[in-house]
Amino acid sequence: MLVLTRKRDEVIQIGEDIVIKILKTGKGAIKIGIEAPGNVRVIRGELLETENSPEHLSAMNSDSVNQGLNAQCA
């Protein structure tokens, strides 16, 4: 893992087309802005963990089954 120190309004460039800018720093938190192409998925870590949880995957699978059944009935 690369660890960088940045101040407000400084940026980090990833590849050719991803830019991370430090917008605000505060007590125990920072606010960042991310510029990336539309085809690059950007998601907070806690949401990614939720998406990969067994409960979420089970719900997604049942939604897919229900959508398939609805399509067959139409």
TrEMBL record:
Sequence ranges of Polar residues compositional bias: 59-74
Alphabetized Gene3D superfamilies for the sequence: Translational regulator CsrA
Cited SUPFAM superfamilies: CsrA-like (SSF117130)
Organism per entry: Gimesia chilikensis
Record-linked PANTHER family: CARBON STORAGE REGULATOR (PTHR34984:SF1)
Assembly, per entry: Homodimer; the beta-strands of each monomer intercalate to form a hydrophobic core, while the alpha-helices form wings that extend away from the core.
Main location (coarse class): cytoplasm
Protein name: Translational regulator CsrA
Domain of life: Bacteria
GO molecular function ontology, one term from the record: mRNA 5'-UTR binding
Pfam family of the protein (one): CsrA
Protein role: A translational regulator that binds mRNA to regulate translation initiation and/or mRNA stability. Usually binds in the 5'-UTR at or near the Shine-Dalgarno sequence preventing ribosome-binding, thus repressing translation. Its main target seems to be the major flagellin gene, while its function is anatagonized by FliW.
Residue numbers spanned by region Disordered: 54-74
Species classification: Bacteria, Pseudomonadati, Planctomycetota, Planctomycetia, Planctomycetales
Entry's family note: Belongs to the CsrA/RsmA family.
InterPro entries: CsrA, CsrA_sf
HAMAP family registered for this protein in UniProt: CsrA
Location within or outside the cell: Cytoplasm
Gene Ontology terms: biological process: bacterial-type flagellum organization; mRNA catabolic process; negative regulation of translational initiation; regulation of bacterial-type flagellum assembly; regulation of carbohydrate metabolic process
